[in-house]
Amino acid sequence: METLTQNKVVHGFRLLHTDTIQDIHSEAYVFEHEKSGARLLFLKNDDDNKVFSISFRTPPENNTGVFHILEHSVLCGSDKYPVKEPFVELLKGSLNTFLNAFTFSDKTMYPVASKNDKDFQNLMDVYLDAVFHPNLYKYKEILQQEGWHYELEKADNPINLKGVVYNEMKGAFSSPEGLLMRANQNSLFPDTSYGYESGGDPLYIPDLTQDYFTQCHKKYYSPANSYIYLYGNMDIEEKLAYLDQAYLAGYDRVAVNSSIAVQKPIGKINEVIREYPVLPDADLNDKTYLSMNFAVSTSTDPETYLAFDILDYLLLDSPAAPLKKAILDAGIGQDVFGSYDNSILQPFFSINVKNANESQKEAFKKVVFDTLRMFVKDGLDKKQIEAAINVKEFQLREADYGSMPKGLIYSIMAMDSWLYDEDPFIHLKFEGTLAKIKQALTTHYFEALIEKYLLNSNHQTFVTVAPSKTIADKEAKFVETKLADVKKSLSAEGVQQIIEETKKLKERQSGADKPEDLRKIPTLSVADVEKKAEELPLKEVTIDGVKALHHDLETNKIAYVSLYFDASAVPADQISSLTLLQEILGKVDTEKYPYSDLVSAINSQTGGIDFDNQTYSDKSDDDTYAPKFSAKTKVLQDKLPQAFALIHEIIYHSKFDNASRIREIVKEIKSRVEMSFNQNGQSVVVRRLGSYFSQAAAYSEKLRGLDFYRFISDLDKNWDDRFEELSGTLSALAKQLFNKESLVASITGDAAILSTVEAQFAQLDLQAQSNAAERGSKKLPEPEAKNEGLMTSSKVQYAAKGANFKSLGYDYTGKLQVLKKILSLDYLWNQVRVMGGAYGAGLALESAGNMIFWSYRDPNLKETLNIYDEAAKFAEAFDADDFEMTKYIIGTLSDLDTPLTPRGKGSMADAQYFKHITQADVQGTRDAVLDTKLADIKEFGKLLKSVTDQGWVCVLGSESKIQQNKDLFQSCINVFD
Predict the structure, then answer these.
(1) What would the mean pLDDT of 459-487 be, rounded to a whole number?
(2) What is the model's pLDDT at position 774?
(3) Among candidates 335, 345, 460, 338, which has minimal Cα distance to 59?
(4) Which whole-number Å values give the CA distances from 717 to 287, 392, 648, 827, in the listed order?
(5) What are the distances in angstroms from CA 908 to CA 637, 706, 831, 850?
(6) What is the pLDDT, as a whole number, of residue 782?
(7) Would you call 603 helix, strand, or coil by DSSP?
């Protein structure tokens, strides 16, 4: 890299700009490919988790979702890799640490990541060939499968509409929160591409034609409209040579008009009303969403880009957020949340209220503007400002984004300016921007932003999303009538053509790829993978009489401390109260602090103090489990004394007597659980189904499943009668739980951090009380099969079926992980997603024996359950040569080797400790995976048949679909009664 100088041309790329970005420990290089016009950004550093992405500027011109469907479709085969699903073949057999694609409001991004050099190159090549040379020109069945198609098998049958994206967006449009967020953006920018739904509106997706589909690819998927990104430890000159020779040298620079228009200020407040479906017997009171929306500068202004992110947290999303408090105190709605979208050219800020009424619109506006004027006049609380800035600063410096590689997050941040023809570094250089924002500690910085962009805004809208008992039927009848009209308009030959196209599509979907084509997908060999499992560092030590687990890892002077308190003595009828306690702690007054000051202290002194409940089931028996209530903090090493003092104050001196404050929290919890049911239905049904046969899952169901939702709903409904008892329960639980005798601590950090924890541990001032006789004595009732249909106003289903195979006489082996990979990415992918039209499907598997099939945003119900029942036959008939088996083995190892941050490694090691998983167990699973043979998969057919014959079923979804199949269920329940 030393040879690279500005304006030098290397392998067809001219180096335009270099920079050192200390904020993310990277050297940055911006190139342009002279012949094709492709742009390239390289962030050089020592991170082995390398990231590549190629993005295209794709502003939509309508609501057909063409760019979303293209995102799916380019990954359905290409010139070089002509199999039907190269993406799936990569999921089966690569060591990727990230592999996906994203459709944003104005861009489409194709990112991959891997720590293996050979694998990284393979992933790049498959993705580049996919975006530049896709098979969608050759096979119109690709649009039919991924977008939409008419389905007709017999001339007498009605025509149906199917398609993966079509069903995905039907699910998205069933969620009131999804409708709200879309309406917020669309309403603010009606004259630009942001006025359209880039994901596609189900009512308009069927307007997409094959001609327009291919025209959009030809126009927008040009190197001249591309943004290539490379991150990590690699030989950049080698990558430039490859990109030039393999792809870009074959293109001439062309003018691509993909510019994004700026919406002129609307002037008057634009009011928009949308409806979302509820069940016919639903109570419409307190079910409306209200939202005030404001356009805020442009995303190429790094200061407002970051400042409004902080302001959103300060005003609305902090537990002590003052604007949120003012709205709730005025009796408007039951949950308030902010949203700030800065991933588009014109970012926008939204103040959202859930569970309100349409009649409260004017009162909502008044309290918001009155409160904002008060903030400008009197000033915001400086302690809260400092705390909010610290939250964002800690997040940016820590750069822990969970399963998302930080290199991928940096690519998205770069695109937030680069896409709009500005410097791609401005958001990555956050230290300078933060320094400017910190003026807020001594000036009216945030107050000036409020005045300029909110109080004096000439670009704002008001959105109402109201419940409707009839909208679902109206839309269903509209589609039904439209399809009937289509059929009426067809001649006999036209009807036959649709029948033939349906047949041809199914033949393509069910047909096998040619073996020679499959071998064109670049793969690794077993020699390329590590045979030895990584050992997570864990050393048992004793600190102040407490057992502690030390994970000796480099954490850049951040201490990660978890305190796991034993919850096994909590009675069954109080388990749901543990989740409420978890949510209340840190958000109510204590003896020393009003809760607003407590929140400020937590956020200014630490990176956060959080509370959680986890159920750690034994590795070999799901009815043996360790329920833990945890207090966790992440904090700079020198702030450990303050963090420990705050934890002590919260766990021992929280007050549970403020009925109005706790009711606010209860209503917010209820609201958030409802959102999770709408957005993550597959998790709901997997947990619920597990509770039919697993003590651990039954416990978890009471913590965060439908049982918990019923508990929190009943509490809200009968608040005046229940609060006094609840207050006593919370106080008693806190006294029982926070006991030094039952504590296991965990510290992730180096030896110096451990030493500081040991020196400061006394600050926790943990109280000891002996209740050893009670611990582990509380048993839940024996689980019972319920076979439930959980009815909502959703237009799609989440269908689960499963059992515990150990109870059926089978043992766990790591080879089952390979079976899971094969079923998820071959059988279920093809049958439930490709042919069934669901957005997703998979298999949940635990070493304790739980095995559950699940589907996601699925238009079907009984058909999907039947597919699960045929899994045994698939396994028994499964055929794969050594090449294919090696792919599945490598893909399974990739799942086992998901890269973890230091915090993630500490949490994983803790979980293994509580589950009694030894390093020998981890290595044993890995050895079994490596030793898996075709005969093993076939033999698993017996296990699968036993599991599906057990017949336990749980489905969340459309009331009409569940009622049509009510013979499958013992009971059909309205979820949101």
Answers:
(1) 94
(2) 57
(3) 345
(4) 14, 37, 33, 45
(5) 22, 27, 33, 20
(6) 79
(7) helix
If we measure between CA atoms, which residue out of 319, 312, 158, 124 comes closest to residue 236? 124
> Which of these three, 223, 238, 260, is where a domain ends?
260
The predicted pLDDT at position 760 comes to 95
What residues act catalytically?
71, 146
**Which residues of 45-92 form beta strands (DSSP E)?**
50-57
Q: Do 50 and 158 share a structural domain? A: yes
* 419 alpha carbon, distance to own chain's centre: 24
- Check if the beta carbon of residue 59 is closer than 8 Å to that of residue 75: no
Same domain, 297 and 201: no
User: Which whole-number Å values give the CA distances from 854 to 315, 798, 823, 937, in the listed order?
Assistant: 39, 7, 11, 20
Asked whether residue 490 is domain-assigned, the answer is no
Distance of CA 245 to the CA centre of its chain: 37
Do 736 and 795 have their domain in common?
no
H or E segment to which residue 885 belongs: helix 882-896
Residue whose C-alpha is closest to residue 71's, from 90, 58, 89, 52: 58
pLDDT band at 2 (very low <50, low <70, confident <90, very high): low
> If you search the block for the tokens 């569970």, which residue do you land on?
355
Radius of gyration of the chain (CA): 28
Measured CA distances, 754 to 99, 394, 407, 748, 758 (Å): 36, 21, 29, 8, 6
Let me know if residue 665 belongs to a domain: yes
Do both 66 and 42 map to the same domain?
Answer: yes
pLDDT for 621: 85
In terms of domains, do 830 and 970 share one? yes
Q: How confident is the model at residue 368 (pLDDT cuts 50, 70, 90)?
A: very high
Model pLDDT, residue 679: 86
Give the span between the Cα atoms of 174 and 264, in whole angstroms.
31
CB 632 within 8 A of CB 612: yes
Q: How many CB atoms lie within 10 A of CB 899?
A: 15
pTM over 0.90: yes
The backbone torsions φ and ψ at residue 389, rounded to the nearest 5 degrees and listed phi first, read -65, -40
Note whether residue 23 is domain-resident. yes
Measuring CA to CA, how many Å separate 59 from each of 65, 67, 105, 197, 254?
A: 11, 8, 7, 10, 18
pLDDT tens, residue by residue, 813-864: 999 999 999 999 999 999 999 999 999 999 999 999 999 999 999 999 999 9
> What is 748-805 written as a DSSP string?
ES-HHHHHHHHHHGGGG-------TTTTT---PPPP----EEEEES-SSBEEEEEEES
CATH at 968: 3.30.830.10
pLDDT one-digit tens code per residue, 106-143: 999 999 999 999 999 999 999 999 999 999 999 999 99
β-partners of residue 295 are: 348
Give the β-pairing of 621-636 and 798-804. Answer: unpaired
- Pair (866, 735) in one structural domain: no
| DSSP classification of residue 833 | I
Strand, helix or coil at 44? strand
Q: Which domain holds residue 103?
A: 9-175+195-260
Give me the residue label for tokens 């001032």: 765
3-state secondary structure 682-719: HHHHHHHHHCCCCHHHHHHHHHHCHHHHHHHHHHHHCH
As given in the structure block, the two tokens for residue 93 are 């057999």
User: End of a domain among 447, 468, 489?
Assistant: 468
For residue range 213-267, list pLDDT tens digits in order: 999 999 999 999 999 999 999 999 999 999 999 999 999 999 999 999 999 998 8
Mapped onto helix, strand or coil, the DSSP state of residue 461 is strand
Q: How many domains does the chain have?
A: 4
pLDDT in tens, 440-471: 999 999 999 999 999 999 999 999 999 999 99
Same domain, 33 and 82: yes
Q: Is residue 370 part of a domain?
A: yes
Residue 770 has pLDDT above 70, yes or no: no
Write out the two tokens for 238. 């080698």
Do 862 and 938 fall within a single domain? yes
